[in-house]
Write a structure and sequence with these properties.
single chain, 79 residues, mainly alpha, 4 helices
Length: 79
């Protein structure tokens, strides 16, 4: 059975959850504003993970867990 392609919204929500985990003192509005300012990077990483997923190089779990966690961590370091 073919795995469902993760949507950008699912990916973004995982990035948000990962970022907010370490900055839980921020309001949701503050998190959203920061992530919006870095949306170009998030979309670029989503596209990169999507290409690997559709090529069969990574699984759905790696896409949403590993890929989203990687960008969330990067954004944490940049904040």
């Amino acid at each position: 059975m073919q795995e469902k392609v993760p949507t950008y919204e699912e990916f973004y929500n995982e990035v948000k959850k990962g970022f907010w985990y370490y900055y839980d003192g921020l309001t949701e509005k503050e998190v959203d504003e920061y992530l919006k300012s870095e949306e170009k990077k998030i979309k670029r990483d989503y596209k990169s993970n999507l290409e690997e997923f559709t090529a069969g190089k990574i699984t759905w779990r790696v896409f949403l867990n590993g890929g989203a966690s990687a960008i969330a961590y990067c954004l944490q370091l940049m904040y």
